[in-house]
Amino acid sequence: MQVKIRNNVQVRGAGQQAIVFSHGFGCDQNMWRFVAPRFEGDFKVVLFDHVGAGASDLLAYDSAKYSSLHGYADDLIEILDELHLEHVVFVGHSVSAMIGALASIKRADLFDKLVMVGPSARYINDHEYFGGFSEKQIAELLEFLDDNHMGWSADMAPVIMGNPDRPELGEELTNSFCRTDPDIAKAFARVTFLSDNRADLEKVATPTLVLQCSEDIIASREVGEFVTRKLRNGTMIELKATGHCPNLSAPDEVVEAIRAYV
């Protein structure tokens, strides 16, 4: 199967260096529509959908392959190889931050810089580590999703988005969650919220920028600081933006931060 079709790969812009945008759980490449076009004048902009999201080929979904984030990291590597790209700037939102980290560990030659937007190496608290959620809370979250995908989406999306004064943002994320294939969404949620990539961070040699929102229920400042501290070459910028999706709620601030880094 062609990689470009499998992941609905879109390439725009005419720059020499490529910048690759990767979406988070329950989303697709459309979530970058306020950010990615701003780089087309200086970069070759690459957008794609993880298998199971957006306009990707759902028939390509393999439960064994995608039982860990490594399957998604392998897809990213295949996309870059298919496009004959090296030394790219990779921008990963939420779980895609760790997908990019894993890919960079496997193939450092493909990456020049990483930008992690709202990353978390582990969502569950563990002894002295604070991930933001107890094991019981994550279990209940996943059970709710298993029982009622639509209800979970309607309840959780506005909370994840934050910005209650702008309900249209929460509604957009809700609709995005609801469009996702329920069975794949449930599987990806388990992979995402049960993952533990803490030990992987110190293996990332690629210079990395962490964009941390000032208030983020999914990835708090303490989480962002942990990620930055464990990276070999990490820098953190705290955005004024609130919520977990600044690519939608504060695109100007995200663009400015990325531009200053790359």
Structure overview:
This protein has 262 residues and is of the alpha/beta class. It has one domain (3-122, 196-261): Alpha/Beta hydrolase fold, catalytic domain (Rossmann fold, 3-Layer(aba) Sandwich). The chain is built from eleven helices and seven strands. It has helices at residues 3-6, 69-82, 95-106, 135-147, 149-161, 167-179, 182-193, 198-201, 221-230, 246-249, 251-261; strands at residues 10-12, 18-22, 44-47, 88-93, 111-117, 208-215, 234-242. Strands 1-3-2-4-5-6-7 form a seven-stranded mixed beta sheet, sandwiched between helices.
Please give the structural blueprint.
Elements: H1 3-6, E1 10-12, E2 18-22, E3 44-47, H2 69-82, E4 88-93, H3 95-106, E5 111-117, H4 135-147, H5 149-161, H6 167-179, H7 182-193, H8 198-201, E6 208-215, H9 221-230, E7 234-242, H10 246-249, H11 251-261
Parallel strand pairs: 2-3, 2-4, 4-5, 5-6, 6-7
Antiparallel strand pairs: 1-3
Helix pairs in contact: 2-3, 4-5, 4-7, 5-6
